[in-house]
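Why do we care about 3D structure at all? Because function follows from shape, and shape follows, mostly, from sequence. That is the central idea of this module. The next example makes it concrete: a single protein chain, its amino acid sequence, and then its structure expressed as tokens.
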Amino acid sequence: MKKTSGFSPEQQLTSLDARLLLSIQRLSDMLKAIQWEQARILGITPLQLQILLFTGHHTAAVNKVAYIAMELQLSRPTISDAAAALVSKGFLRIEEDLKDRRSYSFLLTDTGLEMLEKAEMYTAELQAVVGKKPLQEKMNLYQSIYTILAGLNNKKGGMQRTCYGCSHYEGNKKRQHACRLLEKQLTSAELQIDCIYHSTLA
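And the structure:
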């Protein structure tokens, strides 16, 4: 007997789980296509666009090949080659670590900052759609997405700086959440995916 697939139209008719999974896949595909088109317009690769977005909004401490590779779940050589191309294009510069001469970080140049503004534009249409949603609907949606990401992150790893993976987090990962560093209770909608105060449990 043929195994029923969540991607089959028949399964979509009767299974909410199947419809949810397909909708997430479709959204991912649409965002990827928009990102690729933006990269093409800017004359860079989609990976280079992702690296620009990451390095443009993070500190030198995490703008290293190893960290970016874990963040994007790609190999270090792949990240190193893509970042080197951005350096040659004048969008990134290399800053050596004064404490460890073998280590270095990538920082945006002035030209890179201009490119970053253009790179970020691909999310404008999505931001407009999300911005029109009622607050409670957005909070519920964020909570659902957060728990899905947290569940996948536990299995796949990565460098996502979430509350659940932070030494400052205190709670039961269900309804009670608090940050010891900020000394405040957190709602589920306030849980962070990429927190600037993140401290690894390791």
